[in-house]
Amino acid sequence: MRDRHDEAVRALAAACRRADTAALRAALDADAVAVCDSGAPAPTAPHSIHGARDVARLVAVLLCGRPGADVTVEAVNGRAGLVLRRGGRAVAVVAVGTAGAAVSRLWIVLNPAKLGGWHRR
């Protein structure tokens, strides 16, 4: 049986697959926060991003509509999260926090040095 967290993550994944910014924003809590760990090879936002509008934009740029990429819902830190792969190689792993039925926190790992265990062979 799916819980509210799982449903919120699945809604976020579906919005990513459709590259639907309005649906991304709808899946997010109004006060959502995103933090990125990019490492030096893949620089991104230097600080946390706050608010559904700006977090939706960040997610759209980093995770949505990437040719040849697949967003899946998988266990990340013991709860439903997102993994973005291209050609079997993980390019992003996202741990998700929720508040009720909305996504409230995203921890987005883009650092290639931390993604090796997520690659599919």
UniProtKB/TrEMBL annotation:
Superkingdom in the source lineage: Bacteria
Transmembrane segment boundaries: 90-110
Record keywords: Membrane, Transmembrane, Transmembrane helix
GO molecular function, one term: sigma factor activity
This protein's record includes keyword ATP-binding: no
Listed name of the protein: Siderophore-interacting protein
